[in-house]
Amino acid sequence: MTKDSPSKKAAVKGNAELKKSATVEQLLTREGGASLDELTSATGWQPHSCRAFLTGLRKKGWAINRQKREDGTTIWVGRAPIAVSGKA
């Protein structure tokens, strides 16, 4: 029986985090955005972790707006930053 090395475990965990990050980004950019319940269900994260991730996206230049659905549920709608290519 072999044990996974710490670096291999870290790589697997990193891949899982990338997939969760991509999931959150996809949910935010879809029509209608995403509620906190939808984000926690999709990622398995706690609500405070989802909100912290949204803050991190804002710091990376994402435009994230909080809105209310007709039923009163708070949703977040996001737009990725526009990439600027090359410098003059």
The overall average pLDDT, rounded, is: 86
Helix content: 40-55%
Please write the string of helix (H) and strand (E) elements: HEHHEE
**Total of helices:** 3
Distance between the termini: 57 Å
Strand runs, count = 3
**Strand percent estimate:** 15-25%
How many separate domains? 1
Structural class: alpha+beta
CATH class annotation: Mainly Alpha
Name given to the CATH architecture: Orthogonal Bundle
Shape: globular
Largest sheet: 3 strands, antiparallel
Give the neighbour order of strands across the main sheet.
Answer: 1-3-2
Return the CATH topology. Arc Repressor Mutant, subunit A
Low-confidence stretches: none
CATH superfamily: Winged helix-like DNA-binding domain superfamily/Winged helix DNA-binding domain
> What is the gyration radius calculated from CA atoms?
16 Å
